[in-house]
Amino acid sequence: MLERKFAQYLKTFLKENSDKILLVNGARQIGKSYIIRYVGKSLFKHFVEINLKEDKEGERVFADVHSTIDLYMRLSNYYTKPLGDKSDTLVFLDEIQSYPHILTMLKFLNQEARYRFIASGSQLGVALSQTPSVPLGSITIAQMYPLDFEEFLWATGVGKEWIDGLRSSFEREDALDENTHNVLMKRFKYYLLVGGMPEAINNYLKDRNMARVRQTHKDIHDLYRIDASQYDQEHRLIIRKIFDLIPSNLENKKKRIVYKDIEGVKGKKFSDYANEFEYLTNSGVALDVSAISNPRFPLVESEQKRLVKLYLNDVGLLTGILYGLNVNAVLQDIKSINLGTVYESVVAQELAAHGFKLHYYDNKQRGEVDFLIDDYNALSVLPLEIKSGKDYTEHSALSKFVATPEYGIGRAIVFSNERSVYKKKGVTYMPVYYCMFLQNHSGGDSIILPELEAL
Fold first, then answer.
1. Which candidate among 221, 339, 362, 411 keeps its CA 20 to 30 Å from the CA of 22?
2. What residues are paired with 381 via a beta bridge?
3. Could you tell me how many helices (H) and strands (E) the chain has, helices first?
4. CA-to-CA distance for 267 and 275, rounded, in angstroms?
């Protein structure tokens, strides 16, 4: 079994948050059902799993459920053993977006508290945006992603204590010794090839046969295209077109979506395709990065939707499309191969998995910076530049960005293949694998405010 960070979050939630229902959102094939099933069976005496997508395409047992009583009756018929109560029974409603009426019913199921419920969906974000009566006060939504680089290291036999040592070096801004650096760079490049899809990683672990891994990537990519085809007639062809354009757009200099290329019509803008972009990002198959021209902390206050980049949700899918079975394109330093797109994609994947909203900097006078994230410790914006070649110190846009007084930038980071860690003119240079230690600290641990003075 592949160890996932989400498992611990799930265990904690099910033990401590009995007053809400957890909705797990994320793309298909990332391991949502498996991890919920594994944790649920370990914590509850009775575990009932119902795949509502399969039910809708098959017997439709839950299609006409219109009350909680109806649902309880169908559950008792579905699960032959006697059910317990909230303390020992967990009901898992998988692919809940297939039945929006059951999604709406979660509020009442939670209020009645007859059993514990958990739900997941591969297009849950889409369903929630289209459901008129979302039970907001009764649910907590958690986003799940493919395995990140640290989880890939666990899967390939790297111990947590060793990774903790690496994390300490990152926090101290120390370079690793050359041997450790080389080991990590090799595993990082393997991650670029294999990616974070559980099936792809399991196939790699069996016999390191990249033909089987690439077939898995193709199957998943084709599945995502098929899912898009099941969307409504008006939007589905455009969704597929945008999805198919992602790799080629990333190979362009600007990497952003060119709206006229979608349908070959000039004058198109983001608002013309807002529904299609929403589908791709809410279903988890793509990561969107919004442009910011005048950054302020927090970044959400100054984002623009008119200039958008899209990345695939998994770097293994991307390298499969770009290079197929030629692993040397990634493993060796071939001058004709520019891995900039791949490196940016894997950093986008890491940042999203670690809770960051993705932005980039685009300014006509100063240029473009790959990523901007919120630094909650410094209450400032942290710019990131990703480099895959020897020219990692050449970044005029980043230098101008850092030197702009009104932005109040305290630091910037350039991630590259180089081992050394050093600072120069407000920029810290780090090896690219250190990106796995960037964490969004906007939430998490409890913060206890001091008592107020008596009036």
1. 221
2. 374
3. 18, 13
4. 18
- Return the SS3 of 188: helix
CA 208 distance to own-chain centroid: 25
Q: Is 112 helix (H, G, I), strand (E, B) or coil?
A: helix
- Tokens 């903790």 belong to 164
Amino acid at the residue 385: E
Flag whether pLDDT at 258 surpasses 60.
yes
Residue 83 DSSP class:
P
Three-state DSSP at 110 gives helix
Joined tokens for residue 37? 């099933």
Instruction: Give pLDDT, residue 444.
Output: 54
Give me the mean pLDDT over the 73-81 stretch: 85
Residue 432 CB burial class (10 angstroms; 0-12, 13-18, ≥19): buried
Q: Quote the crossing angle between the two packed helices 210-229 and 198-207, to the nearest 10°.
A: 160
Laid out side by side, the sheet with 116-121 consists of 46-51, 89-94, 116-121, 21-25, 139-143
Highest mean predicted confidence (pLDDT) among 120-129, 227-236, 258-267, 353-362: 353-362
